[in-house]
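Example: Iron ABC transporter permease.
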Amino acid sequence: MRPAGGGALRRTVILVVMAAALVGLMLASALTGQLGIGVADVLAAIGRGLGLAPADAAAAPADAVLWYVRFPRIIVAALVGAGLAVAGVTLQAIFGNPLAEPGLIGVSSGAAVGAACTVVLAPALPFAGAWLGGQWLTTLGAFAGGVGATAVVAAIARARGGRGDAAGIILVGVAVNAIGGGLVSLLTFIANPTARDQIVFWQMGTFAGGSWTAAAIIAAVTAVIAVAFIGLAGQLDLISLGETPARHLGVDVARLRRIVIVLSALLVAAGVAFSGIIVFVGLVVPHALRLLFGPGHRLLVPASLLGGALTTTIADVAARTLVPNADLPLGMITALVGGPLFFWLLGRDRAVRP
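Written out as structure tokens, the predicted fold is:
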């Protein structure tokens, strides 16, 4: 499908507008909260934090709120959305299916199972807390669970012999999600109250626990994998045409699929470990951007980075402002908005293909 309107200039303008909108929304998010902070205060706090302006004792409370609460949350929200969208666009390419998405095919639930296992079992593991400090252990557990769930879906889809069998892949994803949900429920039942609260956090999804440690981990994972996917853009374009044409053109389909599954699972796992399950971002964002930019992954991957970050930043601002003095679950907001939006996208262009 050709991008609507076509033209490199038009697509460049859209990318610039998306980047500007993301910066504006991040600033708006920094202004949002129980403590009233103005634009000038935010800019001044950034200057002081970076050493570009002298310290101001009167502004210390506002600076503390911004640098220890709001800024980490804003960065984590943008990075998680970017990772989910990039994982979605690449999974759609290797499965040859525009309905493939980390949440629908079980990656998120598998990662949640892995993370929940570490929360419940970590106290019984010798030196686990001292060795990995909790967060790294959770990330590794989420990674293992995400890879396992995705590998199961990929193997069954391959065994069915139909790369474009949307119903088959979604049905397998439903089964994986059901099993994952059951395991998470079991772990919740046997967990102590503290661990139970952490598991519920993953199930609901929130950026409230964002920290600079989480931001650093997710940023490192997202940056490296996004660059790798941009390097694989040509092969992703070819495999989107079909496995047989891709093989004839020299693509090692099995190897490419393994690489993309592992890297996509790591992207999702990094987000799930710190923010919980957030659905529909990896499905809706690539669909919408494919309508604007066309099927070429060299442009779709960076566009998905921006689009995913923009989407979760909007959702996070909504979660903090829709109900006064409340922080709504992110998973609820993305599901309620993403589901109807996906129906609209399907109705607008039935010919969308990765």
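The chain has one domain: 71-348.
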